[in-house]
Structure formats: structure tokens, C-alpha cells
């Protein structure tokens, strides 16, 4: 979606700014559907493969119906149904994948299915990260249909709450090219503007504090973030904890058969002939913060081929290339991790796209999930794994402290705090997980499977009790209704 899609048609008798709709519905015409049809066919048949055409196809997807839907809409009589005039415009990287994208979708799906929600309507706009056609194609069809529906909802500015669901650098004025949030006329004309964000370190930098304080409210997911945001200078009266929902019906282990991990995994270290009686899984983007070095060191120090274990890393580049095999081998060599007599325990990397609809099967294929991260905003793969009843080993610091307990997981102790040495948060602090204790916990999970499975069951119970969609939808709806009553 681009900015031109939110411009209003010229009206010879314009209404006051406060009552103009944020976006107008598009009439279905040959001029509109034919280019989309041609572009869709071209991409499907492989005639266009550049990112340019893929992104423009994706942007058209939300502003156009398919040809069949378009024709059907011409003959379907409209129904007179009462709808509330007040709106919530949720702006997030809906078409991108990644943490903010999956979190925003979880809220939208929760609110949409929340039957008590009758005081406001929902509409969405892509904002933040760059669109990904692979991610869009991998969404379940029902989510795509919902996206079409919500994107085309009209709202009036003075009756609309805007949620800017992204990192503060994307808020108006954005520090990089993205659709502005809040959209023109920006802050003052809307009923309220909410920033939804989080950080993975011990503080918020000064510029982002200023951006947070321009918002009417700042929603953060955990008590950890309430403390760090207020401690960094964000107005305490603006900071509200709103936990994330997890779709416990979608991530339900009873519904799925295991994914064949070896069919997509590339063997990086060890032997493919090694038995895989116990599978560790980790899902993360390839960056130092995620603690992949801690994981590799602990795993390779603790296990050998004779242990009949395997480690699968589902990862993707983050400001780096895809040469994960050489990165791992270079790390092993530089860390002086000698090969055991029986040979290295195998490590596999999956770096190809896995559709969202297939993710539960990926978790179902593992015996345990492990993520020794240095800092997390929330840790979405962790709660997904917990909803799938997997025993989880994760660093007991930052966002995950909201839901990790000794009863439902294996909280990994922190050795010390260390300074962030590069990037925009240089000088901040984050956690250094304990390598030796990670070794012990991974061994314990493998050797005490009844205990591990019990923790996994408790984890799913806690996800249902505290973070299921209907519970979080109640929390969000109450917050929205309180604002609308002001």
C-alpha cells in the first residue's frame, strides 16, 4: 500500500477536515481489475520475477478484489446493517512477516473474532517494514479475505483511534520510507493515537522517548517494558501494558502431523546418518542478539553424534547474507570446539521460507525449543512453541519474564549484563545467558522427558489461560472503549 491509496477524490464541496473519511472505497472497473489480472497472471506464470513487480502486485492485492469477487460484487445487493461510526485504524507491517507483523495479526484476528466488540469498527493499513510476497502467499486464505475486508473499511478522522504498531522510528515523521503513522493530518485530528512498541535492551534511546511522548498512549507487552520505558523518560501516564495474544486454536498440537524437517534442512555439521531420537528446534533471525553463538557452543560442548540428537535452526538473514553454513563453521573453528571422538552432533539449517500455515507442523516435529537470546521484546516463537506444548528453554530476562516460570518452562539464568557494541542501541545493556547452564538444561530436557512433557502441557495451559485471543481481545476492547468515551 502506498500513500496515493489514502488520498481523497476531489470534491467540489469539501467537508470539514475532521469529518472527511480517511480512505475512500474503490469502484470496481475494467481499468482497475484488468491490470491486476494481467499482473497476477504474469507473476503466476513467471513472466515477472523482479521485486518491483512482486511488491506492486502485493500492494494491489489489498485494494482490489480478485476478478471473480469483483464481478460478484456488481450483482450482490447491499444490505442495510447498522454499524458503529467509530473506528480503530490499526497500522502495522501486515504484509511483511517478522515480529511486529505476526503480533499485529494476532491482535486483529483476536478482535475480529471477539463477538462482544460492537462499539467500533476495525480497519487496517500496511505500515513499517517492506512488503513480502512470500509471506502474503503463505497466509491462510481466511486471513487474506479478512485483510481485503478490513482494508476497505471507511472511517472518519475525528471518530478514529489510530494504532501505530511498529518501532518508533517508523512513526511520523518516519526515519525511513514508509506510509506515515499516524496518517495525514497526523496527530491532532484523530480521536486518539496509540504507539504499540517494545525494546529488547535495558532502555529506550532519547529520540524514541520523544516520539513515545508525542503519542496519547504507548502500549507495551510486559512489566519489563513498563519499567524500562518509564525509567528512560516516557511519561508514566501514557504507558499501558497490553499483553500479546497467541492463537491457541491455530497452534494446537492435537491438530497437526510433524513436518519433515530433514526435507528442508541443510546439514551443516555432523553426519546425516546420525539417529535423531531427540530434536532441538530454534527459530530466529540471524543476528547476534538472538544468541545463536551461545546455542551452538552449548550444544556442541554437551552433545556428540553418540547422543542421537539433532539441532535444527530455522533462520533468515538480518542485515547479512545467507551463507549460514560458513558462518557456523567459522564460529566452530574460532571457538576451538574440538570434534568429539564419535563425531559432532548434527546441526541443520532451514533458510527457505516456511509458510505461516505450516509453522505448527514445524514445532510438532521437535522435542524441545531453545532460544538463549540476549534480549526479546516478547519472543513470539517462544509462546508459539509453548502453545504447541513444547518444553522451552529461554533466557530469563526481558520480555519472556512475562510468561516463563519454573512450572511451565526451563528459564535460563543470566551470567551477566553486557554492553551492546554496535547498531542504533550501542551502549545499551542486554543479557549474557549462561553457557554452562544451557548445557545442563538441554541435557536435562533430553534425559527427563516425562518432566519436560509435563512442563510443555503446563505451558499450553498458561497460554490458554493468560494469552488466548478472547482474553486479550477483552483487554484491548476495554482500553478502546475507555478512550472512545472520553
Structure explained in plain terms:
- By secondary structure, this protein is α/β, with parallel strands linked by helices.
- It has three domains: 27-76, no CATH class; 82-245 and 470-484, Glycogen Phosphorylase B (Rossmann fold), CATH 3.40.50.2000; 253-467, Glycogen Phosphorylase B (Rossmann fold).
- The protein contains 16 helices and 15 strands.
- It has a seven-stranded mixed sheet, sandwiched between helices.
- Strand 4, helix 7 (206-214) and strand 5 form a beta-alpha-beta unit.
- Helix 1 (30-45) packs across helix 2 (51-63) and helix 4 crosses helix 16 (469-484).
- The chain is globular, with a radius of gyration of 24 Å.
Which terms summarize this structure?
single chain; 486 residues; 3 domains; 16 helices; Rossmann fold
Please outline what is shown here.
The chain is built from 16 helices and 15 strands. It has 486 residues and is an alpha/beta fold.
Write the SSE topology.
Layout: H1 30-45, H2 51-63, H3 67-75, E1 87-92, H4 99-112, E2 121-126, H5 133-138, H6 141-151, E3 160-165, E4 192-196, H7 206-214, E5 217-220, H8 223-232, E6 239-241, H9 261-264, E7 266-269, E8 278-286, H10 292-302, E9 309-317, H11 324-334, E10 347-350, H12 359-364, E11 368-371, H13 380-387, E12 392-395, E13 410-412, E14 414-419, E15 429-433, H14 435-447, H15 449-467, H16 469-484
Parallel strand pairs: 1-2, 1-3, 3-4, 4-5, 5-6, 8-9, 8-11, 9-10, 11-12, 12-13
Antiparallel strand pairs: 7-10, 14-15
Amino acid at each position: 500500500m502506498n500513500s496515493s491509496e489514502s488520498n481523497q477524490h476531489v470534491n467540489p464541496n469539501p467537508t470539514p477536515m475532521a469529518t472527511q473519511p480517511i480512505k475512500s472505497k474503490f469502484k470496481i472497473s475494467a481499468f482497475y481489475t484488468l491490470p491486476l489480472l494481467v499482473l497476477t497472471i504474469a507473476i503466476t506464470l513467471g513472466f515477472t520475477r523482479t521485486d518491483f513487480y512482486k511488491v506492486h502486485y502485493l500492494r494491489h492485492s489489498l485494494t482490489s478484489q480478485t476478478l471473480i469477487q469483483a464481478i460478484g460484487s456488481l450483482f450482490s445487493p447491499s444490505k442495510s446493517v447498522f454499524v458503529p461510526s467509530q473506528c480503530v485504524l490499526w497500522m502495522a507491517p501486515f504484509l511483511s512477516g517478522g515480529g511486529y507483523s505476526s503480533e499485529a495479526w494476532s491482535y486483529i484476528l483476536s478482535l475480529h473474532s471477539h463477538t462482544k466488540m460492537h462499539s467500533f469498527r476495525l480497519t487496517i493499513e500496511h505500515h513499517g517494514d517492506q512488503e513480502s510476497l512470500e509471506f502474503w502467499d503463505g497466509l491462510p486464505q481466511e486471513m487474506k479475505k479478512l485483510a481485503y475486508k478490513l482494508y476497505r473499511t471507511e472511517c472518519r478522522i475525528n471518530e478514529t483511534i489510530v494504532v501505530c504498531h511498529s518501532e518508533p522510528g517508523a512513526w511520523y515523521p518516519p526515519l525511513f520510507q514508509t506510509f506515515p503513522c499516524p496518517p495525514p493530518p497526523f496527530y491532532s485530528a484523530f480521536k486518539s493515537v496509540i504507539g504499540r512498541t517494545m525494546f529488547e535492551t535495558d532502555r529506550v534511546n532519547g529520540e524514541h522517548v520523544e516520539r513515545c511522548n508525542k503519542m496519547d498512549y504507548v502500549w507495551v507487552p510486559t512489566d519489563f517494558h513498563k519499567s524500562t520505558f518509564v525509567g528512560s523518560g516516557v511519561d508514566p501516564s501514557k504507558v499501558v501494558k497490553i499483553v500479546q495474544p497467541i492463537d491457541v486454536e491455530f497452534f494446537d498440537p492435537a491438530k497437526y502431523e510433524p513436518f519433515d524437517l530433514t526435507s528442508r534442512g541443510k546439514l551443516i555439521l555432523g553426519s546425516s546418518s546420525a539417529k535423531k531420537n531427540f530434536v532441538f528446534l530454534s527459530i530466529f533471525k540471524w543476528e547476534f542478539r538472538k544468541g545463536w553463538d551461545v546455542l551452538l557452543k552449548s550444544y556442541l560442548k554437551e552433545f556428540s553424534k553418540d547422543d542421537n540428537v539433532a539441532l535444527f535452526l530455522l533462520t533468515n538473514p538480518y542485515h547479512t547474507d545467507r551463507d549460514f553454513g560458513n558462518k557456523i563453521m567459522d564460529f566452530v573453528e574460532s571457538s576451538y570446539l574440538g570434534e568429539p571422538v564419535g563425531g559432532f552432533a548434527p546441526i541443520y539449517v532451514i533458510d527457505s521460507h516456511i509458510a505461516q500455515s505450516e509453522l505448527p507442523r514445524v514445532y510438532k516435529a521437535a522435542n524441545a525449543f531453545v532460544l538463549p537470546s540476549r534480549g526479546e521484546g516478547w519472543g513470539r516463537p517462544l509462546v508459539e512453541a509453548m502453545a504447541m506444548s513444547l518444553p522451552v528453554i529461554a533466557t530469563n530476562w526481558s520480555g519472556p519474564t512475562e510468561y516463563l516460570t519454573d512450572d511451565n518452562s526451563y528459564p535460563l539464568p543470566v551470567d551477566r549484563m553486557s554492553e551492546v557494541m554496535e547498531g542504533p542501541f550501542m551502549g545499551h545493556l542486554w543479557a549474557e545467558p549462561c553457557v554452562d547452564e544451557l548445557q545442563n538444561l538441554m541435557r536435562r530436557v533430553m534425559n527427563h522427558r516425562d518432566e519436560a512433557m509435563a512442563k510443555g502441557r503446563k505451558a499450553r495451559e498458561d497460554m490458554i489461560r493468560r494469552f488466548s485471543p478472547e482474553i486479550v481481545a477483552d483487554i484491548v476492547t476495554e482500553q478502546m472503549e475507555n478512550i472512545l468515551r472520553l
